[in-house]
Amino acid sequence: MKVPEDVMSVLNARSQDIFRKLVERYLDTGSPVASRDIARMLSVGLSPASVRNVMHDLEDLGLIAAPHTSAGRLPTQQGLRFFVDAMLEVGAVDEAEKASIAKQIQSGVTGHGRVEDVLTEASQLLSGLSHGAGVVIATKSDLILKHIEFIRLDAERAMVVLVGEDGSVENRVVPLPPGLTASALTQASNFLAHHAVGKTLNETMQTLRAQRDRMRSELDALTQSLVEAGMATVTNNGATAPPTVIVRGRANLINDTMASDEVNKIRQLFDELESREGLIELLGDTDKAQGVKIFIGSENKLFSLSGSSVILSPYKDANQKVVGVIGVIGPTRLNYARIVPVVDYTANVVSAMFRRNG
Predict the structure, then answer these.
(1) How far is the C-alpha of 190 from the C-alpha of 184, rounded, in Å?
(2) Which three-class secondary structure state does DSSP give residue 304?
């Protein structure tokens, strides 16, 4: 059943209070909530029968439902969405926890200094704080080059070695023009190093296009051909590279009380994450959002089968470009009020680190 768009105007103060209590109790326990439990929680005296009447109205609106033959009620996916959008009271991250988050993420920087180390720390951190799975989905960043050179593999092929300022190393194989000498290979490496170091691959390509006449005057035809072929290979490969996915705390989503079909759904979710299916779309959805984005159940096809919720926030590079998302995957009864501000603050810390290192 679809929840009416103006549902808040339909609910009076008593109905809102009962619905809020029911959802908060469900998020705390994960169990169906009975009318007598809510009656005890209310500040005004209402009998369980009166609460049941309100719960019937909430059920008619599609906000709650009865699982099987249980006397209690659970919020529906639509009910959870309404609660998150209209009633959720998000707290703040206290100063001690802010310091702890910043310290743990900084430990990734003081290791090898690689971006992936930092993102792994962030994923691990969110897993521990949420008791869910921490997830990072990162676009293939525009590598800023620290070193580039050609290394001959055989008479027909060479390897382009790319070393980024973040410590990452990538290799690409390119064909060699027939008759290219060892000195020409060195000349091509030196030419690229002069024009590429400190720039991204795309910036280097733009520089080479702008200085095509100079390249023709400095390099012979074969060396020029190698430079152009090498840059075309590395930029094209980079453009089609799949996003990086880091998931920590998978075991938190599987427990001994789960039925086998529930466990299989969670495992399929992990398979889908590893295969990168739907990740580009998820990145796009979050990129459009201002701050934290919450997907509940089937609202995103990547998580629809497992029935999971995910709380994501984008993080940005030094140029304020969204380069990935960071967040938490868990059951639909996540503690949204606590996890939303933690995810938001963690994404801000990661963005700040990119700004400092950019």
Answers:
(1) 10
(2) helix
Rounded Cα–Cα distance for residues 95 and 43 (Å):
32
Give mean pLDDT, residues 305-329.
Answer: 84
pTM value is: 0.72
Task: Give all domains of the chain, ordered by start, each with its CATH number.
Answer: 7-86 (1.10.10.10), 95-140+243-357 (3.30.450.40), 145-239 (3.30.390.10)
User: Taking a C-beta distance cutoff of 8 angstroms, is the pair 43, 21 a contact?
Assistant: no
Where in the chain does DSSP place strands (E)?
A: 64-65, 74-75, 133-138, 145-152, 157-164, 169-175, 244-248, 293-296, 309-316, 322-330
Instruction: Report whether 212 contacts 95 (CB < 8 A).
Output: no
What confidence tens digit (pLDDT) does each residue in 27-77 have? 998 889 999 999 998 877 788 899 999 999 999 999 999 987 667 899 999
Check residue 73 and report its DSSP letter. Answer: B
- The Cα–Cα gap between 309 and 277 comes to 17
- Taking the C-alpha atoms of residue 262 and residue 268, their distance in angstroms, rounded to an integer, is 10
Quote the Cα angle for 356-357-358, to 5°.
95
Euclidean distance between CA atoms 128 and 142, whole angstroms: 30
